[in-house]
């Protein structure tokens, strides 16, 4: 991660314009960790950070949306996870990224788990990070990064993060993991080629 981070910083320093960096990937792939480390390499007055979690439709709504899909010639019926493009407020996020590109200031979405932040058009770097980035028009970004992790690593990371930090029930996490991973393969992973 250090080497990639340094390469990005060196590239940003050569650019004579504002740049927008998109960081996407599956849940627990390391996106937020990397974005935060990258953000720390810049002075606070030169970087914006947009976490796209507030642009994901609430799980309290998604749990009522049962979707049907085929994976390895088998029919699946399961609640919509954040791996599905329809689980995101993409138009709102696209508008906000375009506002950065157009030099317009705004505030990010205020939620119960994340306070709003002021996004300044005067800052040279804007980092847009989260699962939602995978589904956006890749032309919105000057640099695109996609993080991938295998299912076993994802489950291990989710167990330590989602259970310890977010209070999720470990049995629910284990039961839902397989379908979440299948939805990732069916709906989200095909988008990764646009970002690499």
From TrEMBL:
**One Pfam family matching this protein:** PRK
Which InterPro entries does this UniProt record tie to the protein? Answer: P-loop_NTPase (IPR027417), PRK/URK (IPR006083)
Q: A single Gene Ontology molecular function, please? A: ATP binding
Q: Which residues form the Phosphoribulokinase/uridine kinase domain?
A: 20-191
The record's annotation in SUPFAM superfamilies points to: P-loop containing nucleoside triphosphate hydrolases (SSF52540)
Which of UniProt's keywords are assigned here?
Kinase, Transferase
Q: Would you say which domain of life the source belongs to?
A: Bacteria
Entry's EC annotation: 2.7.1.48
Q: What is this protein called?
A: Uridine kinase
Annotated organism of origin: Bacillus cytotoxicus
Record lineage? Bacteria, Bacillati, Bacillota, Bacilli, Bacillales
């Amino acid at each position: 991660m250090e080497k990639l981070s340094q390469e990005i910083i060196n590239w940003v320093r050569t650019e004579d314009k504002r740049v927008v960096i998109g960081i996407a990937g599956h849940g627990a792939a390391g996106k937020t960790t990397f974005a935060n480390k990258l953000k720390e390499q810049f002075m606070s007055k030169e970087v914006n950070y947009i976490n796209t979690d507030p642009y994901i439709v609430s799980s309290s709504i998604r749990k009522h949306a049962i979707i049907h899909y085929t994976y390895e010639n088998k029919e699946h019926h399961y609640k919509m996870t954040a791996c599905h493009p329809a689980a995101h407020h993409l138009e709102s996020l696209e508008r906000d990224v375009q506002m950065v590109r157009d030099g317009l200031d705004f505030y990010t979405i205020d939620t119960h788990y994340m306070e709003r932040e002021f996004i300044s058009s005067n800052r040279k770097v804007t980092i847009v990070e989260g699962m939602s980035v995978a589904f956006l028009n890749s032309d919105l970004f000057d640099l695109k990064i996609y993080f991938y992790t295998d299912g076993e690593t994802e489950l291990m990371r989710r167990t330590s993060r989602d259970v310890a930090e977010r209070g999720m029930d470990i049995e629910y996490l284990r039961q839902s993991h397989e379908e979440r991973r299948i939805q990732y393969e069916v709906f989200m992973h095909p988008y990764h080629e646009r970002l690499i």
